[in-house]
Specification:
Largest sheet of chain B: 5 strands, parallel
Order of helices and strands of chain A: EEEHHHHEEHHHHHEEEHHH
Number of domains of chain A: 1
Number of strands of chain B: 5
Strand order of the largest sheet of chain B: 2-1-3-4-5
Strand order of the largest sheet of chain A: 1-2-3
CATH architecture of chain B: 3-Layer(aba) Sandwich
Distance between the termini of chain B: 34 Å
Number of strands of chain A: 8
Helix content of chain A: 40-55%
Number of helices of chain B: 4
Order of helices and strands of chain B: EHEEHEHEH
Radius of gyration of chain A: 21 Å
CATH superfamily of chain A: Cytochrome-c3 Hydrogenase, chain B
Distance between the termini of chain A: 41 Å
Radius of gyration of chain B: 16 Å
CATH class of chain A: Mainly Alpha
Strand content of chain A: 5-15%
Structural class of chain A: alpha+beta
Structural class of chain B: alpha/beta
Strand content of chain B: 5-15%
CATH architecture of chain A: Orthogonal Bundle
Helix content of chain B: 25-40%
CATH topology of chain A: Cytochrome-c3 Hydrogenase, chain B
Number of helices of chain A: 12
CATH topology of chain B: Rossmann fold
Shape of chain A: globular
Largest sheet of chain A: 3 strands, antiparallel
Bound molecules: iron/sulfur cluster
Oligomer: heterodimer
Number of domains of chain B: 1
Largest interface: A-B, 41 and 39 residues
């Protein structure tokens, strides 16, 4: 047996936009064990429920993560609406669905870009991010923000999109779809990309279940599960299939996310077709008393929210189980036995969002 | 600032941000905003960097990391705090694990407010930082010269 050595990876590392630390135990060039340690960006925002009233807390929980900020806000709003028995207008549900899918689009494009950057394909990174900017422009036009939108409210949404805007969005998406197809073909067909991704980082179906993987990570292992099928917001009225992969490797995860991009285009089109007219929010009075669980499908996988109120304006407890946190055991699993040079890419294939993980 | 005299390289570190500001920092490097046209490159190595962009506030665990990265950067160097979190803790100011803005760990030269800070604001901040960098460089050279004369 050759000698073991430990190489620290992170918290600051060129491929990591966010700090996470891994101690990699190496035997020559092979990783035999990866020991993660987290907490560099822990802020303790769940505890802030003590200091902000339940309506203001929405703006704190949105800032769990700048990528899924819309979905975190929405999860919170849905939770409080469930506790308080508020039925939000249908139009608000559709608007939330559209914004959710736009978040997924920009998140997946962002991830594709980072992946391209990680295997040294810089122009591809730039193209992905250029396309992402189009979606951010749409976000800005419809909500006023590029990253943090603050457009949810307990009882609906704060802004409406008129039909002209929705129509122009669909036209833009139609145009974008072609471009994205050209772009993603590089990921799917290029020999070099394939050689970095195929057969690397295999997470079998059994391991995925055992380690509690979520989202594309799990679906790439062939497990058919998508929280959107629970029918929250307007997903119940829309028609879509669960996308799965079969090879269980990094390539399958990439493929699943790419297919999800096209699925999102599709869902948005359906939602725009079906969106009913009407108000976008209802007034909410009183304080939440009771508890609620909410499950949402974020771009990285299933997020679970738990809230408990006791009739005062401050919640008793807020808890979020975010997808990246659930995927860390799977990451540790796929790192075992990999080549040292593959570590950055494998870390990226779980689509890590550290600020979600640590909150 | 009249003109840019060198190509400044950036080091970016995420303190305890919500990563909203981080993706905006990265967005600055991509085609729409493209700071590379000023010769600005994002480097992962503190020893190559002139400008240190920090997002997010300071907590017990990352204080040492930020300090260490700062110390590794060669003189002269400029620190830019990006986002209101990095300026003073922002929305997380009252959270138990946040000590405050980046200036609690290292000296900050330019503050870029916003939540999230817009790419235009970040670029503005970086341009301002270039001015500060120029000044520091002059002072640095003068000090060196004086030292040389004294020897
Ligand atoms: S300033 Fe706002 S967007 Fe930036 S890191 Fe802080 S909370 Fe996130």
């Amino acid at each position: 047996m050759s000698k073991r050595s430990i190489v620290p990876f992170g918290p600051q590392h060129p491929v990591l936009p966010e700090p996470i630390h891994l101690d990699l135990v190496l035997e020559d060039e092979k990783v035999v064990e990866a020991i993660p340690s987290i907490g560099f960006i822990h802020r303790g925002l769940e505890k802030l429920v003590d200091k902000r009233n339940y309506k203001d807390y929405l703006y704190v929980i949105e800032r769990i993560c700048g990528i899924c900020s819309f979905m975190h806000g929405m999860g919170y709003a849905e939770g409080i609406e469930r506790i308080m028995d508020v039925e939000i207008p249908d139009r608000a549900k559709y608007l939330r669905t559209i914004w959710c899918e736009m978040s997924r689009l920009h998140s997946h494009l962002l991830w594709l870009g980072l992946l391209a950057d990680a295997f040294g394909f810089e122009s591809l990174f730039m193209h992905c991010w250029r396309m992402r900017e189009t979606i951010l422009d749409m976000f800005e036009a419809s909500t006023g923000g590029r990253v943090i939108f603050s457009v949810n409210k307990i009882g609906g949404v704060l802004k409406d999109m008129d039909s002209a805007m929705l129509k122009s969005f669909v036209e833009m998406f139609d145009k974008m779809e072609e471009e994205v197809k050209t772009l993603t073909n590089v990921f799917l067909k290029d020999y070099t990309v394939g050689s970095r991704l195929r057969g690397v980082g295999i997470l079998t179906k059994e391991d995925a279940i055992l380690n509690g993987a979520v989202g594309p990570m799990m679906r790439a292992a062939g497990i058919e599960q998508d929280t959107r099928k629970l029918g929250y917001a307007a997903y119940g009225d829309l028609d879509f299939d669960i996308i799965t992969g079969k090879d269980c490797d990094s390539f399958a995860r990439c493929e699943v996310r790419i297919n999800e991009i096209f699925q999102s285009f599709n869902i948005i089109r359906q939602a725009v077709d079906k969106i009913p007219q009407g108000p976008v929010s209802v007034d909410v009075k009183g304080n939440p008393n009771g508890e609620a669980f909410v499950r949402l499908e974020q771009p990285r996988g299933e997020a679970v929210f738990y809230f408990r109120g006791d009739g005062t304006e401050h919640l008793n407890r807020a808890r979020v189980r975010t997808p990246t946190f659930a995927n860390i055991p799977s990451l540790v699993k796929i790192l075992e036995g990999c080549d040292y040079a593959d570590v950055p890419i494998l870390v990226l294939t779980i689509d890590p969002c550290v600020s979600c993980t640590e909150r | 600032m009249a003109k840019i005299t060198k190509s400044p390289w950036l080091l970016h570190y995420d303190g305890s941000s919500c990563n909203g500001c981080d993706i905006e920092v990265l967005a600055c490097l991509t085609p729409v905003y493209d700071v590379e046209r000023f010769g600005i490159i994002n480097t992962g190595n503190p020893k190559h960097a002139d400008i240190f962009l920090v997002t997010g506030g300071i907590n017990e665990k990352n204080k040492a990391v930020v300090k260490q990265l700062y110390d590794q950067m060669p003189e002269p160097k400029v620190v830019v705090a990006v986002g209101i979190c990095a300026c003073n803790g922002g929305v997380f100011k009252d959270a138990y694990n946040i000590i405050g803005g980046v200036d609690k760990a290292i000296p900050v030269d330019v503050y870029v407010p916003g939540c999230a800070a817009r790419p235009e604001a970040i670029i503005d901040g970086v341009v301002k930082a270039l001015g500060v960098l120029d000044e520091k460089q002059k002072a640095f050279k003068a000090a060196k010269k004086q030292k040389g004369e004294n020897k």
